[in-house]
Amino acid sequence: MAELNDKRIVLGVSGGIAAYKAAELARLLVKSGAVVDVVLTAGGAHFVTAATFQALTGRPVWTDLWDTHDRGMAHIDLTRGAAAVLVAPATADFMAKVAHGAADDLLTTLCLARDCPLLLAPAMNREMWDKPATRRNVTQLAADGATLLGPAKGEQACGETGAGRMLEAQQLFDALATFLQPKRLAGRRVLLTAGPTFEALDPVRGLTNSSSGRMGFALAQACSEAGADVTLVAGPVALPTPAGVLRIDVTSALEMRDAVNSALAGRHIFIAVAAVADYRPAQAIEHKIKKGAAGMTLELVANPDILAEVAARPDAPFCVGFAAESQKLPEFAEAKRRAKKLPLVVGNLVQDGLGGDSNVVTLFDDAGSHPLPPGDKLTIAREIVNHIVSMTSPCTE
Ligand code: PMT
User: Which terminus of the chain, N or C, has fewer Cβ atoms within 10 Å?
Assistant: First the structure.
């Protein structure tokens, strides 16, 4: 794997049962030509021994803040010149410490002192993952620029089932390789829409849908990882903004259209992921509608089609549309692509992709249809970015 050959990776292992998978990850990294420095916490050493990692990596294993192994200051030196720090497993306790800047052992201290990207592979019981404290820490870590890989949902070592399983070694290896890939959108300016819109009926009520924004936010992150300058126009969702992405919050379709038009100049790529309401109430009613007759009739008017408008401009960027269908995906997605004259449409069934963390998509372009493997939205977003890169010329500015 070219992305990893000759790269030095700091592999942090904190104390969870998933630490056994870190041994396999170390083996995959070494096999691909990476130089792997393992930093094992006291908790991690309860699950896998330093001797295991030493044998797999052929290098000394770091376990103590005061270890030197002939290096001056391990907590500083280990990350200098490293391509990334990947902590797998990252326990709830470890993430809480890093989120708060704690530095009470070698791994937390080097995370604070690092000058390279930090990737975390969470692993914990589902209740721990769901707790507000962990949610806050995850949000903070993402806002601070850490990249979270997983966790997956499924059967857990404790016997419960839910979100919190660490990704498999091969998945972590692939994600790291993708993360380290050349910045193939460097110099590109990308504009995206994401999430639902909310069309007010009165000051209390409105029309909306159950788009979570996750697919669009994942694409914004994937574009940013690939080196693009990214602006994300987001409908009303409560997701953290991906690192390095400029976010513009809007509520209604008309606001989304205004924000897109204001941010469009100089963009190379426009990706419309938002589930924009096709209609809005004909009148915005100033005061709360009072309960009256047994029924009421709403008059709706069509919203502008933001994507169609952008794609029809003489100076249109490379436009990517989404098609959310509940049936006949190939037929309807291809019809949308042709109607809006788009080079690329990403088709998904609402039952696969609306809300939730995973999706199943097929790409439609002039060459035909290209189904992608089912997966989490970030993995899929990275594949979509690869496809966009293959269809667009490199930046020469
Ligand atoms: O947000 P998530 O929970 O992660 O769910 C992801 C998703 C299912 C919302 C996403 O993957 C998706 O399919 N987004 C497009 C949803 C949609 O509105 O599809 P559509 O077939 O109605 O619209 C076709 C395209 O035109 C879309 O690119 C849409 O953004 C765009 N459009 C539609 C209407 C409109 N008024 N303006 C637009 O720009």
Answer: C
